[in-house]
Design a protein that fits this description.
The chain is mostly helical. It is 81% helix and 0% strand. Helix 1 (2-39) packs parallel to helix 8 (157-179), helix 8 (157-179) packs antiparallel against helix 9 and helix 16 (362-378) packs across helix 17 (382-436).
Length: 475
């Protein structure tokens, strides 16, 4: 019991700052939406569309980089500083390489929105928003790489400071560029994008400056193994399934945004309000998921199988309690919460009617993301992608779209999302339970390179071995 209490304290100590960082990062998007909602309903809807077009491909790059959760946390648990440096430097290299193809994809945002049948009055601003956001992609990916590495070694204070400073800057720039002033004409959605891009580059610079102490030894000198193809390929093998899982999940929610656009501008704006509230609540279990990934990686890297199983169990129980509390808040004060983002009576009324559906799936949303975090900390990254593909794209979205377009409206789409989340949660929890009964071993990207091998390295580089090939934990 003492071990459980100790693990609970450690996870809360990690999860609380990470959740605050997540909320601070989300705060920039929430401020964008709130100010655009006061600028115009059409402008708010255009930013919603533009953000959807931007975030689906961007989330793929973020997911690929999240292989660092396992690599850096396991290396930190094993007290292997050279492995931390190699992982961080490879992450920075991947961040730059991923920026180019994803940025080029965003240039095609206008024809994509036309093909998807979005309202013509929104396409110009939405596509301009997405194209401008491409300018911040390298900064976004570099910041994610630095942030993940700092989180995995338990250095969170600097990230919190940078995120809070960026929020203040974003508010000032939004007020100036969206509404105009000081010689600048009102730019609306374009101003919102420019403010975000400026903040993204500022965050990278601030993080490199303020975290030069813990980051410096891992950034210099540049290690030649970083450019070796075999370990980089193994890192990609670990990260690509995470990127695919992110795209499949965020793509499902953004597909709902696109479908809302086909239903009308009011539906699209109301969905943006509800989606923002759901995203705000999601930042809490996302913090718990990060803590679970880090703790499972630390204990696995330290060769503590009992500790890694205890970390998984504590994270699941903690998440369940937190998400039930959040669901209650959505049910108690829906109008007050929606009113934070819109003053349009029709938008508010529709969003209030949707919020109880969001409350209904909070528990499953939290459990699925924390289960994915546990698996990520162990290096098991394929199952979340498979679960998201099957639950959302084969079942929930086709059924929800057919129901919505035949008269079910916005409520049908949110019912379908809830069903998809529930199915993903059940699949991933079953996977966690199975893996907890197996012998888990540390990832070794360097196997086959000139670097010394890590004892107990995986038989298949970059991923967990087939569970059937492993002995039982008690065997």
């Amino acid at each position: 019991m003492d071990g459980v209490r100790s693990e609970l304290r450690v996870q809360l100590g990690l999860a609380a700052p990470v959740a605050l960082i997540n909320l601070a990062m989300l705060g920039m998007g929430a401020v964008d939406t709130a100010l655009m909602g006061r600028f115009s309903t059409d402008g708010m809807a255009a930013v919603s569309l533009g953000h959807s077009v931007f975030w689906v491909p961007a989330s793929f790059g973020v997911g690929v980089l999240m292989s660092l959760d396992a690599l850096v946390s396991q290396a930190h648990g094993a007290r292997d500083a050279p492995a931390i440096a190699r992982a961080l430097q490879r992450g920075l290299l991947l961040a730059l390489l991923l920026s180019l193809p994803i940025g080029l994809l965003l240039l095609a945002s206008r024809p994509l929105l036309v093909a998807l049948g979005q309202p013509p009055t929104l396409i110009g601003d939405a596509s301009a928003y997405a194209r401008l956001m491409a300018l911040g992609l390298p900064a976004l990916f570099l910041f994610v790489t630095l942030r993940l590495s700092l989180q995995a070694i338990g250095r969170l204070r600097t990230i919190m400071v940078v995120a809070l400073l960026a929020n203040g800057l974003n508010y000032v720039l939004d007020r100036w560029l969206i509404f105009g002033g000081l010689g600048v004409a009102p730019l609306g959605a374009v101003g919102s994008a420019l403010a975000t891009v400026a903040c993204q580059w500022t965050m990278v610079g601030l993080l490199l400056l303020l975290a030069r102490g813990p980051l410096g030894p891992h950034l210099r000198p540049i290690r030649q193994q970083v450019f070796a193809w075999a370990p980089l390929r193994r890192m990609l093998a670990l990260g690509l399934p995470i990127g695919c899982a992110f795209v499949l999940e965020t793509g499902a929610f953004n597909a709902v945004t696109v479908l809302m656009g086909r239903l009308g501008t009011i539906e699209l704006a109301a969905n943006r309000c509800v989606l923002l509230l759901a995203t705000v609540s999601f930042m809490v279990p996302l913090g718990l998921s990060t803590a679970a990934a880090v703790r499972c990686g630390h204990t696995l890297g330290a060769g503590d199988p009992a500790g890694t199983r205890r970390a998984a169990g504590v994270s699941i129980g903690l998440t369940a309690g937190v998400m039930l509390a959040i669901a209650g808040a959505f049910l108690v004060a829906p109008r007050a919460l929606v009113g934070l983002f819109s003053v349009d009576g029709q938008v508010v009324a529709l969003a209030v009617s949707l919020l109880p559906l969001v409350a209904a799936f909070q528990l499953m949303d939290g459990l699925q993301v924390v289960a994915a975090g546990i698996l990520r900390g162990w290096g098991d990254t394929r199952w979340p992608a498979l679960a998201n593909f099957g639950a959302y794209w084969l079942l929930a979205l086709p059924l929800g779209a057919a129901w919505a377009l035949r008269g079910g409206g916005p409520h049908a789409l949110w019912w379908s999302l809830g069903g998809g989340l529930g199915l993903v949660a059940l699949v991933l929890l079953a996977r966690v339970r199975r893996q907890m009964a197996r012998q888990l071993v540390r990832i070794d990207l360097e196997r086959g390179s000139d670097a010394p091998p890590v004892p107990g390295a995986l038989s298949v580089p970059g991923v967990l071995p087939d569970p059937g090939a492993l002995p039982d934990a008690g065997g």
